[in-house]
Amino acid sequence: MSKVASGKTTTPKAKLLDEFNASIMFDKELYEEDIDGSIAHVKMLQKQDIIDLDSKDKIIEGLNKIKDEIKSGKYDFRIEDEDIHMSIENRLTELIGSDAKKMHTARSRNDQVALDFRMYVLRKDREIINLLIELEKVLLEISKKHTKTLLPGMTHLQHAQPINFAYHMLAYMSMFKRDIERFQSSLERNSVSPIGCAALAGTPYNTDREYEAELLGFKKVSVNCLDTVSDRDFALEILFNISTLMMHISRLSEEIIIWSSSEFGFVELSDEYSTSSSIMPQKKNPDVPELLRGKTGRVYGNLISLLTVLKGLPLAYNKDMQEDKEGVFDSVKSAEISIRILTEALRGMKINSENMLKATKTGHLSATDLADYLTQNCGYAFRDAYKLTGKIVAYADSVQKDISELTLDELRVFESKIESDVLEKLNLENSMNARKSKGGTATCSTLKQIDYFEKWLKEG
Questions:
Q1: Annotated catalytic sites, by residue?
Q2: Pairing of strands 192-193, 220-221
Q3: Mean pLDDT throughout 337-349?
């Protein structure tokens, strides 16, 4: 327990310990949750006749005044108060006198901090979900415009098969949809109130935990108080969810960086979300996606840090757990600004369809279609068709043509059974549209995927 909450020690504490022990300079982020939790708590105390109505009203009036002071910037956060809980309690005592001391009846700072932090995480789950929905809407709008825009689909960062740009964007929509679902799942699972658990073993007061949980919007109360005051799984979950989200953002950022290079020229970021070189006036740097890529490692570190803090802790609360918040605050801030700026950068990004189409003429993207043709029409086993196609690709390279540009006569040098219909199969747009299986890249399949995501967004 802290020096403020303890009545055992009498020797004044060193100023250095104040600085080392205090969390007020970062856990002040939780002031709204702390005040709302205290208001719900005193309402419960009065309902259960643990405190009187006059004390309840005075406490609530004082807490609302403190909230206004903090919001207006007039509040003095003092390091000697140690944390946000004691800061608010001390200020309340200044405002209303001894009635403020009744606010802490039937609770401990252990369940108080568990409540505040959990409420904060649940609020941020909802905010991140809403930001991701806006990102998804932008990706959907881009997709609707580019269902026929060809570009090389890649594996190993090598040209593989022709796809359309909408299909590529919908792959990221799928990733971010899973992210939304993870945050939604965490929001549902962690809507469990810890208040009323007190230090670790519950309280002898006749409290009503369910009533208090209902006032604060929780779906239920926790089952075991010993677990509850030391549980930070909800914090680990948001850190993991953010880490996975940022990994997806980083993958898209990497592609934007590559695509915006001179070698590709597939996209161009707006001037608003680009920077120039300090020495080379011709350069336009993709700083936004580079920073997004860089912030990913930062949020990974916050997840590993909290896992490490928690791994060896005996039950129940330990002071080590004060280290649970800064990493979460940092990751939340990184995630929120990252989603916002990615959304805006994508909204203003120029798509260079001509360069994408030009790139499909490199790498023999319809080679698999030729192998399939030989298998289906010329009696080849696929592995034999694969080998023959490899020889034809080598020939195309030697004459500096893409396989889609070879003539019928050139193809018949390798196999006389090849007919003129093969040229349609090798056509890049036809090759893309041939892949019309569910989830495939064909325009008709892509449009179905767009309909799916559009319906999902409308259903909310």
A1: 156, 277
A2: parallel
A3: 97
2 band by pLDDT with thresholds 50, 70 and 90: very low
Asked if residues 161 and 429 have their Cβ atoms less than 8 Å apart, the reply is: no
Tokens of 33: 């949750």
Instruction: Estimate the crossing angle of helix 287-310 against helix 233-259, to 10 degrees.
Output: 160
Q: Could you tell me which of 2, 362, 5, 309 has the C-alpha nearest to residue 162?
A: 362
- Cα 268 to Cα 193: distance, rounded to the nearest angstrom: 48
Give mean pLDDT, residues 423-449. Answer: 97
> pTM of whole model > 0.85?
yes
Question: Residues of the chain with pLDDT > 90: what percent?
Answer: 90
Beta-bridge partner residues of 351: 267
pLDDT at residue 410 in the model: 97
CA distances to 294, 367, 403, 406, 420 from 424, in Å: 45, 13, 12, 12, 8
- Tell me what pLDDT residue 375 has: 97
DSSP structure class, residue 160: E
Compute the chain's Rg from CA coordinates.
Answer: 30
CA distance 400 to 444: 33
Distance of CA 342 to the CA centre of its chain: 12
Measured distance CA(326)–CA(265) in Å, rounded: 40
Cβ–Cβ under 8 Å, residues 388 and 380: yes
3-state secondary structure of 311: coil
| End-to-end CA gap in the chain | 44
More confident residue, 176 or 15: 176
